[in-house]
UniProtKB/TrEMBL annotation:
Signal peptide: none annotated. InterPro entries: Bact_solute-bd_prot1 (IPR050490), SBP (IPR006059). This is Carbohydrate ABC transporter substrate-binding protein (CUT1 family). Gene3D superfamilies: Periplasmic binding protein-like II. It comes from Halanaerobium saccharolyticum. It holds the Pfam family SBP_bac_1.
Length: 425
C-alpha cells in the first residue's frame, strides 16, 4: 500500500474513533459523585432540604447529595459527631458550623479548606452581609461561607405585653421597670432554659454589654484586660438581681431551652431571649406568630450591638470533591434559591437583600431589616472561649444562681482561671 493511501486510511479510522474517544472522555468527566452534606437541621426542615437537594441533582445528574443530620443539644452533640468523623477520615464533604472558637478548633486541626479562591471565582464578597463574612475570616483567610446572619435579643408575647400596657424600653432602666411590672401582675418577666448553659448565657452576655460597653466587652472576650473589675462585678450583680427578684421562670437551670418556650407561648412569661429563628419555631409549634414581637435590648452605648453570629458551610480539607462542594454551596446560597425556599428549607439568610415575605412572615422580615442596620454585633460567649475556659465561665454563671459565687468572688475566680488558661495555651 502506498504511503499516501496508508495516511488516508489512518485519518479515516481516527475520524471514526473520535466520537468514541470524546464520549469516553465525557463519561469520565461526568463520573458519579456522592456529595455528603452534614447539618444540624432536623425534623420538618430536613424534609424540605432533602427535597431541595434532590432538585440540585436534577440539574447536576452526576451528583447525589447525601444529607446527614446530627440534631441534638445545641453545639455539644453536633460538634462531637462532626469531630469524630473528621478525625477518623470519614467526615462529610460539606458541613454546617457555627463561628468563633467552635469552627476555630476545626481550622486549627487542619480540617477546614481555605475558600478565598472560591470567593474570587463566585464573587461571594458581594453576596453577603458584610459582618457575616468578616466573622468567618481568620488571619486574613476565609474558611466559611455564611448561611445565616443570626441575632439574639428579647422577644415578647404581644397579648401579655398589651395587657400590661407596656412600651418598648429606651434604656436598661426601662427594661427593669418592665420586669418589675410584669412580676407584680403575676407574670414571669422572662423565660429561660438553663440546661446546657447557653440560653442563660444570652442574658448574662447582654448585661455585660450594658455595664462594659463595646470596647471593654471586646477586650474582655479577647482576655486583653482583667475580668476582676467593677464593670464585670456590676454585670454579675444585675444578673443576680434578675435571679433574686424571681424575674426568671422558676427552676430554669434544669429546664431545656426548647421547653422554656412553653410558658412564653402560653402567656405565663412576658419575654424570652431567643434568635431570629423564633418566628418559624413558633409557627412550627402551632402558635400564632402575630402574637410575637421583639426589641433590641438597650445598652446605653453607641453603637447599639446585640449578640450576633453567622452560621456557615465549610468544606472538608480532605474531601476529594472540593470543587463540586464549592459549586453546591454557590447554588445553595444563590439569591434565587434563598428567596424561593425562605421559610421552609431556609429559615434565615445572610444573603444581602433576601428577606422573608413581609405579608406572610412579617416578624422575620422586620428582624432582618433591623439586623442589617446594625454596624456591629458581639459574639456569644460560647463562641469566644475554648471549651476549658468556657466551662469555668459557666461555672461562675450558674454559681451566681445557686449562691456558690457572689458577683465579687465570681469575677475574681474567672480572672484567675483566665490567667491560668493563658499560661497553658
Amino acid at each position: 500500500m502506498l504511503l499516501k493511501e496508508r495516511k488516508l486510511l489512518f485519518v479515516s479510522i481516527f475520524a471514526l474513533l473520535l466520537p468514541v474517544i470524546f464520549f469516553a472522555t465525557n463519561v469520565s468527566a461526568q463520573e458519579e459523585v456522592e456529595l455528603r452534606v452534614m447539618t444540624v437541621w432536623g425534623g420538618e426542615q430536613k424534609e424540605y432540604l432533602d427535597d431541595l437537594f434532590a432538585k440540585y441533582s436534577e440539574t447536576h445528574p452526576n451528583i447525589t447529595v447525601k444529607h446527614e443530620v446530627s440534631a441534638g443539644s445545641g453545639a455539644a452533640t453536633y460538634q462531637e459527631v462532626l469531630k469524630t468523623g473528621l478525625n477518623s477520615g470519614t467526615g462529610p464533604d460539606v458541613f454546617f458550623e457555627w463561628a468563633g472558637t467552635l469552627s476555630g478548633t476545626i481550622i486549627d486541626s487542619g480540617y477546614a479548606e481555605p475558600l478565598d479562591r472560591y470567593y474570587e471565582e463566585y464573587n461571594w464578597d458581594d453576596r453577603f452581609i458584610d459582618w457575616s463574612v468578616g466573622s468567618l475570616t481568620r488571619d486574613k483567610v476565609t474558611y466559611g461561607v455564611p448561611l445565616t446572619a443570626r441575632g439574639m435579643t428579647f422577644w415578647y408575647n404581644v397579648e401579655v405585653w398589651e395587657s400590661l400596657d407596656l412600651e418598648k424600653p429606651e434604656s436598661y432602666e426601662d427594661l427593669e421597670a418592665i420586669a418589675k411590672k410584669a412580676k407584680e401582675n403575676g407574670i414571669y418577666p422572662i423565660a429561660l432554659g438553663g440546661k446546657f448553659n447557653w440560653m442563660t448565657m444570652r442574658l448574662l452576655d447582654y448585661l455585660i454589654e450594658v455595664t462594659t460597653g463595646p470596647e471593654l466587652h471586646d477586650q474582655l472576650n479577647k482576655l486583653e484586660t482583667s475580668w476582676d473589675r467593677p464593670e464585670v462585678i456590676e454585670a454579675f450583680s444585675l444578673f443576680k438581681k434578675w435571679v433574686d427578684n424571681q424575674w426568671i421562670t422558676p427552676g430554669f437551670l434544669n429546664v431545656a431551652p426548647a421547653d422554656s418556650r412553653i410558658p412564653f407561648w402560653n402567656g405565663q412569661a412576658l419575654m424570652i431571649f431567643e434568635g431570629n429563628w423564633m418566628p418559624p419555631e413558633t409557627e412550627a409549634a402551632g402558635y400564632d406568630t402575630a402574637n410575637l414581637n421583639f426589641f433590641f435590648g438597650p445598652t446605653g452605648h453607641e453603637p447599639l450591638r446585640i449578640t450576633g453570629f453567622p452560621e456557615q458551610f465549610m468544606i472538608n480539607s480532605d474531601s476529594e470533591h472540593k470543587d463540586e462542594a464549592a459549586e453546591f454551596i454557590n447554588w445553595f446560597t444563590s439569591r434565587e434559591v434563598q428567596e424561593a425556599n425562605y421559610g421552609t428549607a431556609i429559615t434565615g439568610t445572610a444573603v444581602e437583600g433576601v428577606t422573608a415575605d413581609p405579608e406572610e412572615r412579617p416578624r422575620s422580615y422586620q428582624f432582618k431589616e433591623e439586623l442589617v442596620k446594625l454596624k456591629e454585633v458581639f459574639p456569644p460567649t460560647d463562641q469566644v472561649f475554648k471549651s476549658e475556659l468556657l466551662h469555668e465561665f459557666f461555672q461562675v454563671q450558674n454559681g451566681l444562681v445557686t449562691g456558690e459565687f457572689t458577683p465579687e468572688s465570681g469575677a475574681e475566680y474567672f480572672q484567675e482561671q483566665s490567667e491560668e488558661w493563658k499560661e497553658n495555651n
